[in-house]
């Protein structure tokens, strides 16, 4: 005791810990970890932005055995002061490795600090972990592609509240859930595999952002154009509403838009056996902007409405098809998103970097345990 009293510096630190631990919502939680965004963002504060947080024993002081309501019933996220609780969704939880968690941050900008908290018994994962709350900011569909195709249909889960879940076709196997760009992704064989996600108003916005990670691993069912995903198909122009076409014979990928009665798009060099690459397209009835790995690569001016009035309006992952024209991709897809607004370039960049370089985007921890020192004060 005397030893502690002699040091004002140490005394101050202990009081600080005590005050922080008792002020917020989570005074009963034993562990906390600060997660700080680096100086990578371009000045625009991003509101209600879902960030990827990667937890695991690679983080100093972190242990899965510290969770007292396993597997993650006592996991919480908050602002730095522990006064606002943030919604989260677990994409995958692996006590033998890394766990992938999406957290909706009210305002994300350079230097933003969020906290992860855990270590409390008798807690349950809140409803926001499964009800789509993380994706409430104008997301129409979000596919993490982290579920086995051998699960009961619909196997491919949409994380939004719109539940645009997809059903697998082509006798896809458990082994086709494979390493993706974020946790697991889904391998399509380029022969008969695809996922039918159905249709709803949530998938037919006037302005749109659509995106995915893609890694082509062969030609697929046609050397002309195979599709990472297609919203809508018909045998007459415009043939589709939107999606990404990969052309093995031309070594390009195309952000495709069906407007009124014609088809449009922008082409970007892209190759079979390219590493995982992130593509995003935004359309706001002024510009179609296409991004590769978070950077603008093409801007095209169009102003017509997206044509959603097609014979088959469903969203398909892994293919476009009409009659005998079968266009199935051979490769891996991950994190397919349809958004109901044309996102800003800053939003697209942050989305990419947060996934591609998570340990650069965020500075983590170390994890700190509450407790021990407080006993001395009493
Ligand atoms: Ca994934």
Briefly summarize what is shown.
The protein is mostly beta strands and 378 residues long.
Description:
The structure is a single chain. The chain is mainly β. It has 2 domains: 2-134 and 359-377, no CATH class; 139-340, Jelly Rolls (Sandwich). The chain has helices spanning 2-6, 8-23, 345-356, 358-361, 372-377; strands spanning 31-37, 46-55, 76-79, 85-86, 88-92, 99-108, 113-118, 139-143, 167-169, 177-179, 184-189, 194-196, 208-216, 226-233, 242-247, 252-259, 262-269, 277-283, 287-292, 295-301, 312-317, 319-322, 325-328, 330-339, 362-364, 368-369. The structure holds calcium ion (CA). Residues 91, 144-146, 180, 182-185, 334-335 line the site of calcium ion. Calcium ion binds at residues 91, 144-146, 180, 182-185, 334-335.
Features:
mainly beta; eight-stranded antiparallel β-sheet; disordered N terminus
CATH class of the largest domain: Mainly Beta
State the share of residues found in helices, binned by percent. 10-25%
**How widely separated are the two ends?**
10 Å
Number of E-state strands: 26
- Silhouette: globular
Tally of separate helices: 5
- Kindly report the CATH topology of the largest domain: Jelly Rolls
The low-confidence parts are: 1-22, 372-378
Counting structural domains, the number is: 2
Q: What is the radius of gyration?
A: 23 Å
Topology overview:
Elements: H1 2-6, H2 8-23, E1 31-37, E2 46-55, E3 76-79, E4 85-86, E5 88-92, E6 99-108, E7 113-118, E8 139-143, E9 167-169, E10 177-179, E11 184-189, E12 194-196, E13 208-216, E14 226-233, E15 242-247, E16 252-259, E17 262-269, E18 277-283, E19 287-292, E20 295-301, E21 312-317, E22 319-322, E23 325-328, E24 330-339, H3 345-356, H4 358-361, E25 362-364, E26 368-369, H5 372-377
Antiparallel strand pairs: 1-7, 1-25, 1-26, 2-6, 3-4, 3-7, 5-6, 8-24, 9-12, 10-11, 11-24, 12-21, 13-18, 13-24, 14-15, 14-21, 15-16, 16-17, 18-19, 19-20, 22-23
The chain binds calcium ion.
């Amino acid at each position: 005791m005397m030893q502690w009293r002699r040091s004002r510096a140490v005394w101050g630190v202990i009081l600080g810990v005590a005050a922080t631990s008792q002020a917020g919502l989570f005074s009963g939680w034993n562990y906390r970890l600060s997660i700080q965004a680096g100086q990578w963002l371009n000045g625009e504060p991003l509101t209600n932005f879902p960030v990827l947080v990667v937890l695991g024993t690679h983080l100093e002081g972190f242990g899965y055995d510290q969770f007292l309501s396993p597997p993650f019933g006592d996991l919480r996220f908050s602002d730095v002061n522990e006064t606002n609780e943030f919604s989260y969704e677990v994409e995958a939880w692996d006590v033998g490795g890394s766990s992938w968690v999406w957290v909706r941050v009210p305002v994300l900008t350079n230097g933003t600090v969020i906290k992860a908290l855990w270590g409390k018994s008798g807690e349950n994962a809140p409803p926001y972990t499964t009800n789509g709350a993380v994706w409430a900011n104008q997301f129409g569909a979000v596919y993490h592609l982290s579920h086995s195709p051998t699960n009961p249909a619909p196997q491919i889960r949409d994380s939004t509240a719109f539940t645009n879940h997809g059903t697998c076709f082509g006798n896809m196997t458990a082994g086709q859930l494979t390493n993706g760009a974020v946790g697991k992704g889904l391998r399509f064989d380029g022969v008969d595999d695809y996922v039918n996600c159905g249709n709803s108003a949530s998938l037919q916005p006037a302005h749109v952002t659509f995106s995915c990670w893609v890694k082509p691993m062969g030609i697929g069912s046609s050397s002309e154009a195979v599709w990472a995903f297609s919203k809508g198909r018909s045998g007459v122009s415009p043939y589709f509403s939107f999606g990404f076409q990969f052309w093995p014979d031309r070594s390009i990928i195309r952000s495709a838009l069906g407007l009124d009665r014609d088809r449009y798009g922008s082409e970007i060099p892209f190759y079979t056996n390219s590493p995982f690459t992130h593509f995003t397209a935004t359309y706001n009835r002024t510009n179609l902007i296409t991004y590769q790995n978070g950077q603008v690569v093409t801007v095209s001016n169009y102003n017509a409405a997206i044509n959603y009035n097609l014979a088959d309006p469903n969203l398909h992952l892994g293919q476009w098809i009409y009659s005998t024209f079968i266009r199935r991709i051979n490769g891996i897809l991950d994190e397919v998103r349809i958004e109901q607004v044309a996102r800003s370039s800053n939003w697209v960049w942050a989305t990419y970097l947060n996934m591609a370089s998570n340990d650069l985007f965020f500075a983590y921890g170390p994890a700190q345990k509450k407790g021990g020192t407080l006993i001395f004060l009493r």
